[in-house]
Amino acid sequence: MTNAFCSKFGIRQPIVLAPMGRVGPPELVAAVSNAGGLGLAPLWTDAPDKMRAEIRRIKELTDKPFGVNLNMDFRNEAQLDVCLEEGVDVISIFWGEPGNFVERAKSHGAKVIITASTSAVAKEAVALGADAICAQGWEAGGHVEGKVSTMALVPAVADTVGDVPVIAAGGIADGRGLAAALALGASAAWIGTRFLAAKEAPTHPVYMERLLAASEDDTSHYDDLYDLVWPNAPHRALKNSTSEMWDAAGRPPLGQRPGEGDILALRPDGVEIPRYASAVAFAGLEGEIEPLPMWSGQGVGLVTKIQTAEEIVREIVEQAKTIINF
Ligand SMILES: Cc1cc2nc3c(=O)[nH]c(=O)nc-3n(C[C@H](O)[C@H](O)[C@H](O)COP(=O)(O)O)c2cc1C
């Protein structure tokens, strides 16, 4: 199942593994790329040395194209330097002004994908030289900049950006979603929550159990619930005991919140995770997991089993093919 986006990015299936901070390890990224999709590694939380090691590990696991995701709210030139020195195929840019990143990446032969949540932002991204746009709708899990649904956003962005391929993100978890995204004018689907249930994803077992049991109504979008560490960054996560406490207290701001200052969990590197931190519940955390942010998109109701990343890619493509003829 290929198309112009696949040819441009050197892949065989119109599926992009959404970069997911701390739960998108080299094994998952490489597995999606080996299955014919495009794996994106969320390495923006890493120091440059660690990042280089992770990129080299991905290269050991696949000879297919893959990308690295960088967060412009924490823009770091040294991170981009490492990606370009290592010859990363694709740079994915999200959240904030890209500055000179697009120009620098392209001058080294990398392709650039910019995430946009409105057609106006997509238009600016194309003017900067983006090779593709990730149109991220409001249904998406994790940090979500806009408030427009995928259904309305994707065709609007597609109409705005002309020949530049659009990748639809937010709420897509099976072949019906992929077929719908293609029908809306996207060239591929950018899928996060479904891949949290991949065997290769280090999703904490407590988080995994909640994902597999959740319905489409079990997430909520918050402007500022988990805003310690990364403020002013709206997000979508499963409802949990922290969100219930905060709702019951009338959603007070930092400084007046119930349970503020509680240390909920400890990372393997010894870093403490307080309540309301913008953390990720990955395997290896010790402590209380349920009150941590369990990022999830509204498509979570379609995530019912753990499979390999290769099985997920194959199942989604096969199902889409039964709906739309390619
Ligand atoms: C656990 C988790 C972590 C995420 N971390 C990132 C990230 O580091 N960088 C990024 O660009 N997007 C991140 N996102 C957003 C995804 O890239 C993507 O837009 C979203 O998952 C798509 O919606 P879906 O979850 O409904 O498939 C994250 C999403 C989740 C669920």
Automatic annotation (TrEMBL):
Keywords on record: Flavoprotein, FMN, Monooxygenase, Oxidoreductase
Gene3D superfamilies in the record: Aldolase class I (3.20.20.70)
InterPro entries, per the entry: Aldolase_TIM (IPR013785), NMO (IPR004136)
Keyword Metal-binding: no
Gene Ontology terms for molecular function: nitronate monooxygenase activity
Name of the protein: Nitronate monooxygenase
The species this protein was found in: Roseovarius bejariae
Highest classification ranks of the organism: Bacteria, Pseudomonadati, Pseudomonadota, Alphaproteobacteria, Rhodobacterales
